[in-house]
Design a protein that fits this description.
By secondary structure, the chain is an all-beta fold. The chain contains no helices and 16 strands. Strands 1-6-2-3-4-5 form a 6-stranded antiparallel beta sheet, with no helix packed on it. Strands 9-8-7-10-11 form a 5-stranded antiparallel beta sheet, with no helix packed on it.
């Protein structure tokens, strides 16, 4: 589906220069002289390159629809991760760098969303929130107010997050995977 250069939005998947690109940021600019344009920051989903491109309002670009499929995480094998298709039980092995920093939050049996282009996996999306166990938390400093202070805590997956002072070691919390931030105490 072709779209105008000024209709590009963050999160769009575009076909540009024979590659598949995900839009990270956009900035619409209307200079005093000349036509309006959209400054677009994109990341190549195949090789990870980043680029900035300027699209004018009369430019058209192909917007790509990706196929999505649910997969279940089975186990890690060195630098690779093994997933299973929940419909037909086929297994697929993907490099852990396809997930980036979110790979630390993978848990056995977790259902993830694989985005595919021409039957080739190009990205893995984890659930937005996951439960994690705090294994180490700093002690509360006397005199801090609970409303504005946070303290560092180490999760069972090795990730550090900031938590409210009343949360201690051994507590299960809900964490935002992509912001790497505390959401709430787990039920």
């Amino acid at each position: 589906m072709k779209i105008s250069g000024v209709d590009i939005r963050p999160g769009n998947i575009l076909e540009y220069e024979k590659g598949i690109w995900k839009v990270a940021k956009t900035q619409h600019t209307q200079p005093g002289k000349g036509g309006a344009f959209m400054q677009v920051e994109m990341k190549n989903l195949i090789d990870g390159r980043k680029t900035n491109v300027r699209f004018r309002s009369q430019d058209t670009i192909e917007k790509v629809r990706l196929d999505t499929k649910d997969f279940q995480f089975l186990y890690a094998e060195g630098e690779d991760l093994v997933f299973m298709d929940v419909e037909n039980y086929d297994q697929i092995t993907l490099p852990s760098d396809l997930l980036g920093d979110a790979a630390a939050f993978l848990q056995d049996g977790m259902t993830v969303l694989l985005e595919m282009y021409d039957d080739r996996p190009i990205s893995v999306e984890l659930p937005e929130y996951v439960e994690a166990l705090i294994v180490e938390a700093d002690a509360v400093v006397k005199g801090q107010t609970a409303s504005s202070s946070f303290k560092p805590a180490l999760l069972d997956n090795g990730v550090r997050v900031m938590v409210p002072p009343h949360i201690g070691s051994g507590t299960r919390i809900v964490v935002d995977v992509y912001a790497r931030s505390y959401v709430k105490k787990a039920d």
